[in-house]
Write a structure and sequence with these properties.
globular
Length: 141
């Protein structure tokens, strides 16, 4: 991970929010080739736990405004800052969730791309299959 991960929301930026979110996303992912199996599972598990804990779903975003989800984004930002120096893999997972939510409410091509890319981590086909096999609905409420 690069230094830009450390400055997720550092100071004022002249770049559009979607562009800076995309740049941070590109720099926040761990190098998956260098992760061992345990680290990779920790990353996936952290994303799943965060998604479940914060009830992240597209349906929820459609029903809530940016102002309504701002406390969730703020809490995720606090968690991110707490884990950043302790565990960069977990910090990356927290950033994925935070960026996924925040990017939904930004009308910018960079933000739309971030939303789609982070959705690949949050709404993985494996999770959809597990829910279907367990008799759960594919949509989350």
């Amino acid at each position: 991970m690069s230094q830009s991960l450390l400055s997720v929301h550092g100071g004022p930026s002249t770049k559009p929010r979607g562009t800076s979110l995309l740049e941070t996303y590109e720099n926040c992912l761990p190098n998956f080739d260098s992760l061992d199996e345990e680290q990779h599972l920790k990353f996936v598990k952290a994303i799943r736990l965060i998604s479940d804990q914060f009830k992240i779903s597209e349906i929820r975003f459609e029903d809530e405004t940016s102002a309504q989800v701002q406390p969730m984004i703020d809490r995720l930002r606090q968690l991110y800052n707490q884990y950043l120096l302790k565990n960069t893999i977990v910090a990356s997972a927290i950033f994925i969730a935070m960026a996924h939510i925040e990017s939904y409410y930004i009308d910018d091509p960079g933000a739309k791309l971030v939303h789609n890319l982070t959705g690949l981590h949050i709404y993985s086909p494996i999770q959809w299959l597990e829910r279907k096999e367990n008799g759960g609905a594919l949509d989350e409420s």
